[in-house]
């Protein structure tokens, strides 16, 4: 029976060391745990690979390397990419000391390992760094999406107002939130269970009962379809119902028994 293959993480790891055997050892260990690694045998090569691959979110680098050491490489990362890339760093060294650890932490390094490496400790640390990167990516994505959703809500509200104006000009019936129903509605929201709902939820119920789709409800109320879905889900939970059909029947003047 074959072993289950670990799911590959979306966060790639850049492993930097001028000793190929060390890089290979770390890479094999982490890839066995489901991580995708990119090897580099110098800071110069690491700079190029980090710049070319936006999926790299964790950098694990040796300190003592020829030409450019790990600290200089990390300083370059922070200087060049901290504002536009989300990443975490950790260092490995065979020349560790208390002063080295303090400098590493001061430079923004998240963890510190000494050779010979405890690969299980490295893997455990990488998992924590991965969690940090994913959380920061999610927060950044949410921060970018929120203004777009606000803009979409405003656009839908504007279209809804234009639609209401056009209906009025054409003499067509218009939904009136104050009464919870349109002129030809068969909705009855006087039943006791509907008293548990907010005014906005009652508006949604009235439209569902009149066979409005989520898209139509969004236009009528000036909100997004996702917001409509959330309202419907909340309403069903509050009333102990399973689906929209049950909700529509419960809200009609003569529901089926």
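^ structure tokens above, recovered residues below v
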């Amino acid at each position: 029976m074959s072993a289950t293959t670990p799911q590959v993480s979306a966060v790639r790891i850049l492993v930097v060391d001028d000793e190929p055997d060390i890089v290979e050892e770390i890479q094999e260990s982490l890839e066995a745990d489901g991580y995708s690694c990119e090897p580099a045998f110098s800071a110069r090569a690491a700079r190029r690979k980090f710049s070319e691959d936006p999926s790299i979110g964790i950098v694990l680098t040796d300190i003592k390397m020829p030409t450019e050491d790990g600290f200089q490489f990390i300083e370059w990362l922070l200087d060049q990419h901290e504002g536009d890339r989300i990443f975490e760093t950790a260092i490995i060294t065979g020349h560790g000391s208390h002063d080295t650890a303090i400098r590493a932490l001061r430079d923004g390094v998240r963890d510190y390992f000494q050779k010979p490496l405890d690969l299980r400790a490295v893997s455990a640390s990488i998992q924590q760094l991965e969690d940090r990167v994913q959380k920061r990516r999610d927060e950044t994505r949410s921060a970018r999406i929120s203004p777009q959703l606000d803009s979409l809500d405003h656009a839908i509200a504007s279209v809804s107002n234009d639609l209401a104006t056009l209906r009025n000009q054409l003499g067509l019936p218009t939904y009136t939130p104050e009464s919870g129903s349109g002129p030809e509605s068969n909705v009855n929201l006087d039943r006791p269970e509907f008293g548990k709902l907010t005014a906005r939820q009652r508006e949604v119920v009235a439209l569902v009962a009149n066979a409005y789709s989520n898209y139509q409800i969004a236009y009528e109320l000036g909100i997004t379809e996702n917001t409509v879905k959330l309202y419907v889900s909340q309403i069903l939970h509050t009333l102990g119902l399973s689906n929209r059909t049950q909700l529509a029947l419960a809200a009609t003047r003569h529901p089926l028994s």
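The first strand starts at residue 12 and ends at 16.
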